[in-house]
Amino acid sequence: MPYPPENHPHVFSVLAGREVSTWSDEWKHECEVRMLANMTLAQRNEVLDEPLKGMKAKRGEPAVARMRAEIDRYASLMRPKS
After folding, report:
1. Could you tell me the residue ranges of all domains in the chain?
2. Sequential pLDDT tens for the chain (82 residues)
3. What is the pTM of this model?
4. DSSP strand E in the chain: where?
């Protein structure tokens, strides 16, 4: 099988609302958001805010703010509709 495969697998993205390639930046972003959304709040805050090692130290405050907004959006999309 060639690397990368010619026909990348596609999966449904909750955040994009459509199928995306599993090799795309959209899917990479969704996986990161999903991982963080499944952590406890304390764990998530540590990953995002830890001095010198956290996302804030690596990507900056605006990136962390966008990530928190995406986590909230993902959680709202995953809530059962009533």
Report:
1. 10-78
2. 566 677 889 999 999 999 999 999 999 999 999 999 999 999 999 999 999 999 999 999 999 999 999 999 999 999 988 7
3. 0.85
4. 10-13, 18-21
